[in-house]
Specification:
The chain has six domains: 231 residues, no CATH class; 150 residues; 68 residues, no CATH class; 90 residues, no CATH class; 141 residues, no CATH class; 110 residues, no CATH class. The chain has 34 helices and 24 strands. Strand 18 and strand 19 form a beta hairpin. The N and C termini lie far apart (92 Å).
Length: 869
């Protein structure tokens, strides 16, 4: 084997003894094929030899910095025309390095990598400049790049980006000639073979954008990844005429360069002109067809990493075309189209949905949707508000909040005010109603609940028809589809508006009566929940609480509030601000007029300081020592805006908290591991259960624990209500099939105490509601109350349903009866009678169990009858 130093010198001299200005006079023949037009002076040639010889011998050859070598600095200071030839010479070296070392019997030596790693950073520095390439030398450069790729040379070792930038700069000044087009097309075909790295894909996209930069030149983009959305996009392209197809592929090529976190002004300007070029209607039509297909299962993407093969979820977006998709979504921000905004909002929902063991399905595309919605006016803000109430992943929630803040900044108003005035009417012609005439028939779309709508059809004479008239299906197909889409959109937007209004308790917002009427009372969509809520009004010496009824605002005694003026002040009423008698009067009024509130307001639980809490001073133990299902608790924390990450058998312990800068308070709810028994662990080492501890209130300004007496009463009540919700929903005591104490029987004592123990504030409210509802039930004569139980007398047994957990004991010996609610059980019982508020699933389950057990002889389920008999 030859001496390594001699080998390197021989290699360098071989390449650098190319035809030079001095050699021409002597008539020397170069030892390698010459590159046309390249003339490297002996001084520059020696500088290259010195640099590669020195840098290529470093022990840390993978992190070479050329500017640390005098020879490289001198090369970078040469004239730009001379640097063009140096780039050509160095690039040619890349293509021959591998074959030279093979012939020299040092294939497995790291010297070839040392040489390559010395060349790459120097070339990158040279290519950062705008250099005076002419067309001949640029075509030569592209040809050399193709030869480099054709050698056994991994693409990540070379920075194609700098080379492509030279091509882009040249074309911007001189246009794209046929010869350069053909050279680039050959390079594109060569690079594309086996290019799986993200860097390579971005460069392929840039080359395709160049090839599609003229109306008379184009190259198709391969969209076949096996995904449903790419298949739909390919189908849309296949159905276009040749000219339109070329225009679209030009746009798609630019969209594939959408690799940054947000679009630049230059990128948006280019895409805007391309959308005008292909036509806005065509752009909207394609996106309306493609975006709804995202998230549908397609081919599973396979990625190679070392010796392992990773397969992703079939509903995820493949990385191959994720930038293209992001670019299309960004492009939607340039179009004013309400249907497109709704589809982008739905796409964000799909992308942020969590996949087990993966996280959000496609956060990159979801974030692109947020950008588009934040820049789509009021229609986009309405979608953001809806997404904010649904998204659960912590990082995704931050992105949604950031998008809303950006939209508010663009509008120059607060986030809260923007969300109020941005709520769409969705074409509703009255509060909670949309009437649409179609031929001789008319359709009536009605809001019947926070999550429900009803679409009814009426004949010319006014008689109701059960289904869509056949004659309308033929003549008004698009109108019928639009009505159904509106119904779906209402069912998505209304829960978000309900949640936003409920958050007003802690925002303590006020309005003038004029603004209140416009944004709430008389708004076709928001008016539906707003007219079922109680509001407080003040004007001069007059002050009263009121609710909308029979076309007027009335107090709890049904007296009209006839003193209201446009300047009167309005705020959302909270029961804590009224006496017990006043709260009771409102509960009776709602019951008498059969008004179902969208959330608990008149029946809202109040949490006041207990003697025990005054004794502890700075923390509350009211909800300590409960065993919670950790995964359910974590999900509910995220839904309610609390910060929490799952704990496990690693350094993962953290305290759930939520901050309210407007109040200057952070609230902490301490939870920790149980005894970490094997039965309490998931396969990944995550705790299945956590045990609760203290609730603390921290001053954000002073970073100190606040005495509970210093915490504002309304704030204390609302946050303790949140903690009560965590326990009430996530406690293992709610598990009906845990009568054995759960895994290993470790929690039998806790389960029995919780399942049949003292009632929480929430459960006490539930009992009060049932006491008023009971006389109206058809099973009233079979029901009664004993302490913390609803007692139901069946024909076979008598049953006691605990008003907190919903679990059941049977006479005569308090034998436990296990009934596991099925899907829809929470709504089955409430369908028998109108509940005074929405949202208490346990109340609905208790009612459904009561109706079931009152007629226990009719029960057919063997899992229940075996226990009863």
């Amino acid at each position: 084997m030859p001496d390594m130093n001699d080998l390197i010198e021989g290699f360098l001299k071989r390449w650098m003894n190319m035809k030079t200005a001095d050699d021409d006079a002597d008539g020397k023949e170069p030892e390698v094929p010459e590159i046309d037009g390249v003339s490297v002076r002996p001084e520059a040639r020696q500088l290259m030899i010195d640099y590669i010889n020195e840098a290529g011998k470093r022990s840390d050859w993978w992190s070479i910095k050329p500017k640390g070598y005098k020879s490289a600095q001198q090369l970078l200071e040469l004239g730009r025309e001379e640097q063009v030839d140096i780039i050509l010479a160095l690039t040619a070296m890349l293509g021959s390095t591998h074959s030279f070392f093979i012939k020299s019997a040092v294939l497995f030596s790291d010297q070839r990598y040392r040489t390559l790693y010395a060349l790459k950073p120097l070339l990158s520095l040279l290519l950062r400049k705008k250099l005076p390439f002419d067309e001949t030398k640029l075509c030569t450069l592209v040809q050399l790049l193709r030869d480099v790729k054709g050698s056994d040379f991994r693409e990540e070792r070379i920075s194609y980006g700098g080379y492509i930038k030279q091509v882009e700069d040249f074309i911007a000044d001189n246009g794209l000639s046929d010869e350069l087009y053909q050279k680039l097309k050959e390079l594109h075909r060569t690079i594309k073979k086996g290019s799986g790295f993200a860097d390579a894909r971005r460069n392929i996209n840039r080359i395709e954008a160049i090839l599609n930069s003229g109306s008379d030149k184009s190259i198709d983009i391969d969209l076949h990844t096996g995904e449903v959305w790419t298949a739909t996009l390919q189908s849309q392209m296949d159905n276009l005429e040749t000219v339109s197809r070329k225009k679209w592929f030009t746009l798609l090529a630019v969209c594939r360069n959408a690799s940054s976190s947000k679009p630049s002004g230059k990128w948006l300007k280019e895409v805007s002109s391309l959308i005008e070029y292909i036509g806005k209607e065509s752009f909207v039509s394609v996106l309306l067809a493609v975006l709804p297909e995202i998230g549908k299962p397609g081919a599973v993407e396979t990625r190679e990493m070392d010796i392992d093969t990773l397969q992703s979820d079939p509903t995820q977006v493949h990385t191959v075309h994720s930038d293209l998709l992001r670019g299309l979504v960004w492009g939607a921000s340039l179009i004013e189209n309400e249907s497109l905004v709704q589809v982008v909002g739905n796409t964000a929902d799909v992308c942020f949905k969590k996949i087990r063991d993966v996280g959000p399905r496609a956060p990159k595309i979801g974030n692109a949707c947020l950008y588009t919605l934040a820049n789509s006016g009021f229609a986009g803000v309405a979608q953001l508000s809806r997404i904010e109430s649904r998204v659960k992943h912590a990082s995704s929630r931050k992105q949604v909040a950031r998008a809303l803040n950006m939209a508010a900044a663009n509008a120059g108003i607060s986030k809260g005010e923007l969300e109020e005035i941005a709520v769409p009417t969705l074409g509703l012609t009255n509060i909670g109603e949309l009437r649409r005439q179609l031929g001789d028939y008319y359709a009536l779309l009605t809001i019947t609940g926070t999550h429900k709508t009803s679409l009814q059809w009426y004949k010319p004479g006014g008689q109701e028809q059960k289904s869509v008239p056949t004659v309308l299906k033929e003549s008004f197909g698009p109108d019928i589809k639009a009505l159904k889409n509106t119904a779906k959109e209402i069912e998505k937007l209304l829960p978000a508006q309900r949640d936003r209004i409920e958050r007003l308790f802690l925002e303590t917002r006020t309005w003038t009566f004029a603004d209140f009427r416009q944004r709430y009372l008389d708004h076709p969509l928001v008016g539906w929940p707003a007219r079922r809520l109680i509001w407080r009004f003040r004007s001069g010496e007059n002050e009263s609480d009121g609710i909308w009824h029979d076309g007027l605002l009335k107090d709890a005694q049904s007296n009209e509030l006839n003193w209201l003026t446009d300047e009167a002040e309005v705020e959302l009423w909270h029961p804590l601000t009224s006496t017990g008698e006043e709260v009771l009067a409102w509960r009776i009024w709602l019951d008498r007029h059969q008004v179902q509130q969208p959330f608990k307001q008149a029946h809202r639980e109040i949490y006041i300081l207990t003697d025990a809490e005054r004794e502890t001073g700075t923390y509350s133990n009211r909800f300590a020592a409960h065993i919670l299902r950790q995964h359910q608790f974590g999900a509910l924390c995220q839904q309610r805006g609390w910060h929490y990450t799952l704990q496990g058998q690693w350094d993962s312990h953290n305290v759930p908290f939520i901050e309210f800068p407007s109040w200057g308070i952070r609230v902490e709810f301490w939870v920790g591991a149980t005894d970490e028994r094997e039965a309490d662990l998931a396969g990944s080492g995550v705790f299945l259960f956590v045990v609760t501890d203290q609730v603390r209130f921290i001053s954000l300004d002073e970073n100190r624990q606040l005495p509970l007496t210093e915490v504002p009463q309304l704030f204390f009540s609302e946050l303790m209500r949140d903690v009560d919700l965590f326990v009430g929903v996530c406690s293992v005591g709610n598990e009906p099939n845990w009568s054995d104490g759960g895994p290993g029987g470790y929690y039998l004592g806790y389960w029995q105490n919780y399942s049949f123990g003292d009632l929480s504030e929430n459960a006490r409210t539930r009992k009060e509601v049932l006491e008023r509802l009971l006389p109206r039930l058809k099973i009233a004569d079979r029901c009664s109350f004993i302490d913390k139980f609803l007692v139901v007398r069946g024909d076979i047994r008598t049953y006691k349903i605990h008003l907190g957990s919903g679990n059941i004991l049977m006479s005569p010996n308090d034998q436990y009866l296990c009934i596991v609610p099925g899907r829809g059980a929470s709504s089955k019982g409430s369908g028998q009678v109108l509940l005074p508020f929405e949202g208490d699933n346990t109340l609905s389950i208790i009612l459904s169990k009561a109706f079931l057990l009152a007629e226990d002889t009719k029960i057919k389920d063997p899992t229940i009858t075996r226990q009863i008999r």
